[in-house]
Amino acid sequence: MSFHREPNIYVGQVNLKVQHLERALKFYKEIIGFKVLDQTEKTANLTADGKTVLLSIEQPDNVVPMQGKTTGLYHFALLLPSRSDLARIVQHFAHLGLRIGSSDHLVSEALYLSDPDGNGIEIYRDRAPSEWVWNKGEVEMAVDPLNFSDLLSGADQNKAWEGLPSETVMGHVHLHVSEMHRAEEFYVKGLGFEIVNRYGAQAMFISTGKYHHHIGLNTWNGVGAPHPAENSAGLKSFTLMYPNAAAREQVIANLKNIGASVTEENGAFATADPSGNRILMLV
């Protein structure tokens, strides 16, 4: 989990808009295994360890269903501390009869599903960094079938599922963007990330500290995809954690140098990428 602490820049929290708060809460508690840290009539903060917010959900006024073929969230990804934790949630999903996607990415093993509003979710475990293969500055990743038999072979069949482990972190976010060149300038020259993998001309993975990716970017919803409506279900924003105020000040200066707007809101600095994905920069 050292890739998700200083001196790295990493995603701390994802903030979603949903159509029905209670429906979303039921899903995130009973299916995913979050605990509710606090809740109001229209919002809820969710946690794995009882103190750190990983996911915030909000039911806006006049909310409309998620629109297709727009920019926004492809998925957010919860990183579990161990392979046995991944096996245990597979057993939990199987017990519920839940249909899920899956993949072996070489650097990780991952499960995929969506919440009732269509927000994509990945739940994964990392292989040891010593097993990752780097070639000319890029980490090798793939979309291979997940070996469920091997994954489940070491699982304790008698240990009950108890929700997300307390050490769970927000591993990364993967975003739909409208154009790759401008996204690259914003995230690399502006926010301070490094490109660690290109998936043809349609996707790019970026990180700090040689992680396989803290952020994924793709144009799979179409080059030139429009922004979703402000009151659409989907991504509201996500937070990036910077190691200190000086590092954040440098990033703010870099963003302004490339023409990006930065505003201050209640002690946090906010910006948006060229595709309208909103980011809060914290220390």
TrEMBL record:
Residues 10-126 form the VOC domain. The keyword Ribosomal protein does not apply. The keyword Acyltransferase does not apply. Keywords: Metal-binding. SUPFAM superfamilies: Glyoxalase/Bleomycin resistance protein/Dihydroxybiphenyl dioxygenase. Coiled coil: none annotated. InterPro entries: Glyas_Bleomycin-R_OHBP_Dase, Glyas_Fos-R_dOase_dom, Glyoxalase_1_CS, VOC_core. Pfam families: Glyoxalase. This is Glyoxalase.
